[in-house]
Amino acid sequence: MRIVPISAFNDNYIWLIAPDHTAQALTQHAQGVLIVDPGDAAPVLAELRRHHLTPLGVLITHHHYDHTGGIKPLLEAYDFPVYGPARCNTPAISHPVREGDILSLGAGIQLRVLETPGHTHDHVVYHGGDALFCGDTLFAGGCGRLTEGSAAELYASLQRIAHLPDDTRIYCAHEYTLANLRFAIQVEPDNQALRGRLHRTRRQREEGRCTLPSTLGEEKLTNPFLRCHLPAVHAAAEAYAGRALDSPESVFAVIRYWKDRA
After folding, report:
1. 119 catalytic, yes or no?
2. 67, 123, 127, 234: which one is catalytic?
3. Which among 138, 139, 134 has a CA at the least distance from the CA of 124?
4. Residue 37, C-beta contacts closer than 8 angstroms, at least 6 positions apart
5. 95 given a catalytic annotation
6. Which of 53, 124, 145, 216 is the most exposed place for a label (fewest CB within 10 A)?
7. Catalytic residue list contains 66
8. Which residue out of 64, 123, 127, 234 is catalytically annotated?
9. Of 51, 63, 119, 123, catalytic
10. What residues does 109 pair with on adjacent strands?
11. Which position among 62, 123, 127, 234 bears the catalytic label?
């Protein structure tokens, strides 16, 4: 797969996935791409027309408008299947997906569906090869807000993701990396891997570059929401909360609360 970001709104990324047989799709006028979370149709249509591409399908992670708002205009221009959570209330979804489903999307692309509630009740992610399309569940350096689900749900969802291989590339849906790492350094000021990542990310953003994808291994070293089992993060959460915390899950809940108010 070749995976390319399209910027949308202020900080969204819509991902284009070019299957193996169109690996040079965005430079050699090949056809056929998958589209992940098209919240805005305009930049997607522009990219498709510029490179003479056609959608093989759309993948939706959850129902929020900045992930689904572009589906209807895209369907008016092209005919393609729309895959999305069975619990999602987006009417354009033609192929509902559930935990454990394997999507065979042509040219050897297979993606497995994992249900990851927490940010929303209906959230799913798609994992295949070394790529994870994780919407708003896991961010580079952070995780999604609790807009519908509970801290316990989101913590469990992130733990499921943490068991994927460390070389898994993280394709999340927002350019939040710098803000997330600025918060993370408050939690772990002595984390040298985090300090180095923050420095690199500042440089990337100053140069106007996308900070994604990261890898799951990098997230485990620098993302406090995947490090709640470690003493330094536990101690920081207790200091912020002003009370003892008895589990990584309770640490996660405090860190998420802290981030919301940072």
Report:
1. yes
2. 67
3. 134
4. 12, 14, 15, 59, 60, 61, 67, 68, 133, 135, 173
5. no
6. 145
7. yes
8. 64
9. 119
10. none
11. 62
Active site residue 199: no
Does residue 52 carry a catalytic annotation? no
Average pLDDT across the chain, whole number = 95
Tell me which of 37, 40, 122, 136 is the catalytic residue: 136
- What's the confidence (pLDDT) of residue 24? 52
Q: Exposed (0-12), middle (13-18) or buried (19+): which is 180, by Cβ within 10 Å?
A: buried
Give the sign of the dihedral formed by CA 26, CA 177, CA 216, CA 13.
negative
62 catalytic? Reply is yes
Question: Is residue 136 flagged as an active site residue?
Answer: yes
Least Cα distance to 3 among 13, 12, 15, 21 occurs for 15
**Residue owning tokens 């070394």:** 130
Low-confidence residues of the chain, pLDDT below 70? 20-30, 107
Which two three-digit tokens encode residue 26? 């965005």
